[in-house]
Amino acid sequence: EVQLLESGGHLVQPGGSLRLSCAAAGFTFRSYAMSWVRQAPGKGLEWVSGISGNAGSTYYADSVKGRFTISRDNSKNTLYLQMNSLRAEDTAVYYCAKLTFSMIVVGSLDYWGQGTLVTVSS
Amino acid sequence: SYVLTQPPSVSVAPGQTARITCGGNNIGGESVHWYQQKPGQAPVLVVYDDTDRPSGIPERFSGSNSGNTATLTISRVEAGDEADYYCQVWHTSSDHPGMVFGGGTKLTVL
Question: Which residue, B6, B19, B34, B97, is most buried by CB atoms nearer than 10 A?
């Protein structure tokens, strides 16, 4: 059974930093690309970032480029999102999700974690 | 950047057919995926690659994609289908590839 468990979300001040983690189990982690998707309170889904299975390719939404860094440790079956220079508009539930078929970041997301809440406020 | 446009809401009576659209420039040339999200829960993939269903998703859920509009069709709607639905594509552009979600459609079962 595929399991994705996010952690690391909490209250942080504007301008601060936070690292989210996503522990994966139940599939061959290195064989699949992964993504982070966020959802602000009462709003829709927003793609944040994606990384290929071998970590050779990374992609970012314009809204986070230069501030967030996605990475993965295939030996630990864990996905990360380093978030710097946080802003109030980064407040959201952050989901990690698995690409359905591929090592590359193209296609659909077939498994999602339950999310971790990041609140940016003074 | 590529934009996907969904109606904010769709209402349908139980047993009827719901159609949720997703508009985008030449979206027929993209692979479109659909997610269902119920309150307080993570999204669930219900249709991928325009028309395919993951295992466990009822046949009542189907998709189509042509021209500038993709459509998620839910036949014989049930109360349990009430949820937010999102379309998504991976848009390849020369300067900025990325995943794009539509704004979401709230399906209300009357």
Answer: B34
